[in-house]
Specification:
Distance between the termini: 64 Å
Structural class: alpha+beta
Order of helices and strands: HEEH
Strand order of the largest sheet: 1-2
Helix content: 40-55%
Low-confidence stretches: none
Shape: elongated
Largest sheet: 2 strands, antiparallel
Number of strands: 2
Mean pLDDT: 84
Amino acid sequence: MNKKRIVALVAIVVVIALMLGVYLATRPETQQGSKAITVQVAHKDGTEKTFTYRTDAEFLAEVLAVFLIKQRILDKLQNYRV
């Protein structure tokens, strides 16, 4: 490898390490206990539907994942109506 490629690679690694350090130092703390999350879905036809979930999960991403899975299942079921 030539010297310029090595310097570029080291610079990229340093930047990634710095970004990771900043993220880990400034990310918000998780909260224990009951939480509520409200998701508003806007459809192409202009209608909207609001879903509210309550959870004790540490991360709200768990609730969103379950919501998205349920929504996909419902969408597929609507397509198979006879």
